[in-house]
Design brief:
Number of helices: 4
Strand order of the largest sheet: 4-3-2-1-5
Shape: globular
Pfam family, one: Creatinase_N
InterPro entries: Creatin/AminoP/Spt16_N, Creatinase_N
Oligomer: single chain
Organism: Methanoculleus marisnigri
Structural class: alpha/beta
Radius of gyration: 14 Å
Protein name: Peptidase M24
Length: about 110
């Protein structure tokens, strides 16, 4: 028997809030962050997918999934998971792109 446990939605919200607070402290002018690494995506969303987690400063984060939307929805309690065929779809779906986009450079502890 396989035991599966989803990361609670409250924990995912807390992690995102801590990320935003850290970005505010370390990069006060930040507007947008992009998370491509699957380990970091798992930390913030509870699922590892081929895609990108886009985090705008003044709006809710969106996980854009390229391959298995159904699996992502089954594995995760993250509130906004959307399908994409290419990264261009994610960019268009998020609206205007700010001048600066922060991209992960390390794995979140």
């Amino acid at each position: 028997m396989r035991m599966e446990r989803k990361t609670p939605a409250t924990e995912l919200r807390d992690r995102m809030e801590r990320f935003r607070l850290r970005m505010d402290a370390e990069n006060p002018s930040w507007e947008f962050a992009a998370i491509f690494g699957r380990v970091n995506q798992f930390y913030f969303t509870g699922t590892m997918q081929d895609g990108v987690l886009l985090i705008p400063r003044g709006d809710e984060a969106v996980l854009w999934v390229r391959r298995s939307l159904e699996r992502a929805l089954d594995e995760s309690l993250f509130p906004d998971i959307r399908p994409m065929k290419s990264f261009r779809d994610a960019a268009c779906g998020m609206g205007a792109c700010p001048a600066t986009v922060h991209v992960e450079t390390e794995t979140v502890p």
